[in-house]
């Protein structure tokens, strides 16, 4: 509190306060400014409010593309705070975006432009499955970037590790979709090791595949990823699986099923081919989104009888390939069941295998003519009114 009296008044009047003056009509007044005990907190509040108002004013002049990410906000927090919060499971991992390069003017006056790659256009490899193809042969099935294979030179190195040794070979790639791939193309990698001992350890082993882009995305960058394609437990190796008679005579590998399927048509198709193929047959169906509840009711009895296996492959819809990645799934089926059947069939659920009843032949007698063949092609014939009974036509008299 500040005393505003003059020195003369102080000498005459003594102490402070409000008191009588020199005369009857004169008053002396003590004027003061009183700060409360929380003066420091009040000052801090006022300063903070001013800073917030200033920040709100500045944000109005920033461009529309400006944004603040969680990484940007975390960069403002002291390192001790970040370390203290690191134990929280909800906290995302720290990210350090690389600063973009800027154009520069060289000493000779040339403007050197900068190029800043951000993100990736497609995955280098999308692994689906891996199977043994023999004593020392493996097949790895997956998707890969189509531009990478069309315009680049990617390589795949196979490595099989046992408890005693490690064998490495260069994988041989096959693109079975004949150029129909879109963003992704189907890739089958064959790994053939020089000796049986490299892949027949009784203690088991692991098959690793090293997928290298070899500058397919960036000529100055060779991105290599490691894929643990197959883990074989101890004593899982058994050569009998390649020499014993197969479990089935006929096995069907279907294309991906999607869309609005008719349960009645699916019922007719399965019943027809189970009767045609016989008891030693099996059907592998791949669901790409077409097996709805009513269709599932049709397939469930055949699954319970052991005639049908259903694979859910809806996840592959994330990756843009030809016809719901048809070539991917049929190659998976081929290598998965190749030692389980004598003959394997590939056709769609809107197609029927037909044997002329007038020939008195059965499917078994027809296939016996091709015992020495490894592959045959069945000719197609479009269905027409000549293949249907007239009384079944729509609107025909009963």
Question: What report would you give on this structure?
Answer:
A hairpin with a 5-residue loop joins strand 3 and strand 4 (111-112). Helix 7 runs parallel beside helix 8. The protein is extended and about 100 Å long. The strands form five sheets. Strands 5-6-10-9 form a four-stranded antiparallel beta sheet. Strands 8-7-11-12 form a four-stranded antiparallel beta sheet, with no helix packed on it. It has a four-stranded parallel beta sheet with strand order 15-14-13-16. By secondary structure, the chain is of the alpha+beta class. The model is unreliable at 1-35 and 64-89 (pLDDT under 50). 23% of the residues lie in helices and 24% in strands. The chain has helices at residues 7-13, 39-59, 70-74, 79-84, 146-151, 240-243, 263-277, 293-304, 326-337, 363-367, and strands spanning 19-20, 27-28, 104-105, 111-112, 125-132, 137-145, 155-161, 166-170, 172-174, 184-192, 205-212, 224-232, 248-257, 281-287, 308-312, 341-346. Among the domains are: 125-237, Immunoglobulin-like; 245-387, no CATH class.
* Quaternary structure annotation: single chain
Give the neighbour order of strands across the main sheet: 5-6-10-9
**Number of helices, counting only DSSP H or I runs of 4 residues or more:** 10
CA radius of gyration:
39 Å
| Terminal CA distance | 114 Å
Mean pLDDT, all residues: 80
Order of helices and strands: HEEHHHEEEEHEEEEEEHEHEHEHEH
Question: What does the main sheet amount to?
Answer: 4 strands, antiparallel
